[in-house]
Amino acid sequence: MRTRARSWAAAAILAALAALAPGCGDGAPSAPPAGGDGRPLRILSLTPNVTEILFAMGLGDKVVARSTYCSYPPEVQALPAVGDTLQLNLQEVIRLEPTVAFLITRRDEVPRRLQGLGVRAVPLQSDRMGQMVQSIRTIGRETGREAAADALIQRIGADLDAVARRLQGLPRARVLFAFPMTVGSSRIMVAGRGTFVDELLSVAGAENAYPETADWPTVGPQQVVALAPEVVIINATGDDAPPDRIQVIRRAWDGLPAVPAVASGRVHVLTESYLTIPGPRVGLAARRLAETIHPDMPPEGPARTEGGP
Prior knowledge:
The chain has helices spanning 8-19, 48-56, 90-96, 109-116, 129-143, 146-166, 196-203, 221-227, 243-254, 260-263, 282-293; strands spanning 43-45, 63-66, 100-103, 120-123, 173-178, 188-189, 206-208, 218-219, 231-235, 267-270. By secondary structure, the protein is an alpha/beta fold. It folds into two domains: 8-162, Nitrogenase molybdenum iron protein domain (Rossmann fold); 172-293, Nitrogenase molybdenum iron protein domain (Rossmann fold, 3-Layer(aba) Sandwich). The strands form three sheets. The chain has a four-stranded parallel beta sheet, with helices on both faces. Helix 5 runs antiparallel to helix 6 (146-166).
């Protein structure tokens, strides 16, 4: 028997809030706000979710450059792009004179290079919901916007809770979250347990059909049959998003009639990129997933105005 949908969002966000409350953080000393040395605050954001967080905190006018992949909110596209943590245009960084850079990377040389240019490099993590909250807190501390960080965290918690409340009493479906198959390959990349998307599925009233802790493992057709998902959600963005490509993606899954989701016509191709971005739109992502997984869920209250691709 499936357990009832739980208010997971409240527990996760409140736990993160408690762990990150003033005086109860990770023990790292508080740094002075970037720009506190007399220089104006000039921010370089090298990660899409960080860019969204900065704009949601009212820091958009302080962002002077972005990564190639930062595209939301729309106004960020007018900012100069300086590459990413794999290929960073240092000459452009020098020209733009940022005072602080926020980035997510496992490559130590990137922060070192930025520090060598006189840019305060602040590495962040966002593989889990709690890490996203920690990142918001860190950005607030680094920019002197702690109150804005608190407000954003509270809003995200309220958005997730609103979704969880609508799901109370509904059964949890076994859901496989995947990316489109690579052309010429039968391997499918899926969301493993312990990832941000796994947590998002839980908020959306689902049980991850992939049973093991892993980031983004690949599975073959026979494994998908064995996993027996009741719902399959394929996140197709960018070059995979045009209608003709979506039809190709759907037809590829038609070849697996033994999968319950295929047999019942519950293979869904969603084109919203924010479904995998751990930032201010996670509530919107949870709602989109929940309404796809549970088409019979009660209607929501007044609609929010945020959104975007």
